[in-house]
Amino acid sequence: MLKQERLRLRDNVLPESKELIRREIDLCRTLRAMISRELEAIVLNGDMDELLDLIESKNEIISQLQLLADGWKDLLSQAGVQEGTNNPKFPEGFGRYLLELYPEDEELPALIEESREIAGSIVKAEDDAVSELEKFTAGLRSQMISRVHGRNAAASYARMGGSML
Length: 165
What we know:
Elements lengths: L1 H44 L2 H31 L15 H8 L6 H52 L6
Helix pairs in contact: 1-2, 1-4
């Protein structure tokens, strides 16, 4: 009976894993597109309102990704796998474990690879967006300081009896 239960769980893990990976990929694609739009808002448009709207939308996607992570925890628990990166069953990650568990599945390797690639591109794109935002805010800070200095100089000049016209 226990062996049948394990087989049933094993049969259930693959389709559920694939569905979670597909949903993760879709959410990551959406997140990646938002990061690209962030860069446009910062670099091309200097539109802080659009940027703030995008950040809020990104937070919603990140919340959905967190729900997916909870789904992975549930699936791992059902499969009898303890979560954690130090788990000896999948020292290189759960994706590798799935590939070893289901070597005959033809779709799984491509899904896992796509998931890894898009996750990597998100990290890089987010780093680029943060860098551009830092440059943008440094530029704004410099402009503000320059204007403050200009106003202070004008006020000093006026106090000394000079004319601004």
